[in-house]
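Final report, closing paragraph on structural work. Over the funding period we assembled a curated collection of sequence-structure pairs, and we close with a single example.
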Amino acid sequence: MASLICSESTHKQIQRYADQLHTLVATYSWITESYVVEFFVKDHWGHLPVSWQTSLESMTPTDISETLMSNPYAGESVRSNRTSVWPLSLLAFRAATHALSLRRSVAQPAKLHPQSGRNPDLSHCYRAHVKPKKQHEIERLAEVIHLTCNQAGCHHVVDIGSGQGHLSRLLSFGYSHQVTSIEAVGCHITGAAKFDQEVKQYFERKARGSDDTVAVTSPHHVICTVHPYITVEEFLSAISAHTSKQDNGLSHPLDGGDHIESSSEKSTHQDTCKKRKIESTRQISHQDTVGSCCDEQKTSCKQSSCKYLPVNLEPTLTKASTSDFHTPTSSTTSTSDQTRLESCTSQVIGGDLESTPGQDFLIAGLHTCGDLGPTMLRTFAECPSSVALASVACCYMRMSFCDKSVDMNQEPLKNDRVLPQPEQLQELSFSNVQLQHHGRDERHATPSSCQTAAPKTVPRLDVGFPMSSHVRTLCKSAGTSLIFESLELACHFYDGYRKKLEGNDHSLLIQGYRAILEVLIQEEDIELTQSQDGARRIRKAVSSVKRAHQMKFEDYASAILGKLDLQSDPVRIRTLCEECLPSWHNLLVYNTIRQLLAPIVESLVLVDRALFLAERGIESRLVPIFDPLISPRNLVLLAVKKPR
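Its predicted structure, as stored:
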């Protein structure tokens, strides 16, 4: 299926789908909760059924790709594995993983230039400072958000976790939406304001010599931490904030409105502009918003179909010609087609930019990390003014999640707020959640900037998984839940790993090297692998060795052990290499089995979110919009509330 629709009519069907996903994940949790780096240390191969070992032993990387990873449900041909006959349990496992995972393929692959990586569908003013992957993502998500706004009948977009504002900028300048971008990191807001000004100046240059006034709109930037305990009132207050604080703590009035003047008008306002600049503070204001153009934009901005959405989604939306609104492509940059924009950083003009009471908006998030995704969903469900949602998640392992001791039938408290004890606050911090999982390098990644500490007053912990009552009941009845290792697996680059197998990439040998090295490290100092600091040291030492696949294992191991101040016994290294390295193909097989389960875990997390919305009467759908080879987390959760 191109997309999954969770509505009142399909609710029961989606619940059964969640049951199947949960059963598969629970059955093979011993695989999803393992790490390939421990392949030899914990004898992962020996834990597979003997019949699986016999059928899969010593397969080449190409064999693995063409047999295990080929998906017949996506129209791919599956090559039989030489002369061996697979057991029914292995055939059923392969079929179940392919059949149950959400479809990730898109109708149109990315159109990035093979050498420069440029996206030809974006004007150069939107490509500046943006990496090719991000160009692809903002171009496609912006069109989907625009279409969803039209369906919901709203013009205001709230971009949560906006970073340096690349998506917000395209939505505002390219699609004429009123955009509020919320970001917790002040330096990102500074960069966003600078880049907004560059785009504004681009349109100013195009307006020179024109007799027409070109109206333009830039995003309204807010520095705010959207923590998991934020209330609807706090969220709405952030959107309608009058001031924004820079890194130095200074506040500035918001821009009250501006437009790009033609050459005939520019001299008239030149003196006034200079006076405003002198009267304003030297610090740049990061906030800017749309004033009175909302009704005008609702009239002029027509519906359009989106070429990235599946066919079965579009009939529910009104279609019209895309020529009725300004698109962000380089072929439609005529000044007469530009919409109303306001100055973002060149001037600080006093004015009241408070949001219109009751104004509806869409909540958007591009690769919201950890708890930010679930927080968006809860805010969307509880806030009456939030009428639509477009959420692309990532970093599931950074979420707060339940353990087996939690009563998962108990609904989180909504209104009763309690002040936890200091030790409870410590338990809620992300760093302590990580430390509950001792061991490998992958478990001790540094928390990202979008993870923030809990506020002083918090309700009972709202977990990121499970969110829905249905999946919570499944987890409780089975006595299982997803843990850090499983959620980390859900973020793996499935399609990229398959490409490596297809091409018999020589870098795959490093997985074998690294697993053998783990045996040596644990023999010398097992405590090094059990602490966060030790894992960091190992990761740094491993990453410092370049072109390792071109080295002999003896040289590779000696170099890393030396950096870790561990004994390097040439005889032991050589003996271990002779024992383990011939089995490195089996390691690839085991890792592929884990990779087959990665989309299943991700599907369960995303379906749980769709069911969370359905339990609150909100229809949603999960749609792949990014090329999975460019952006592995390519599923967007779209939702539009029923009219009030």
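Residues 584-614 form the longest helix (31 residues). The CA atoms of residues 220 and 288 lie 4 Å apart. We thank the funder for supporting this effort.
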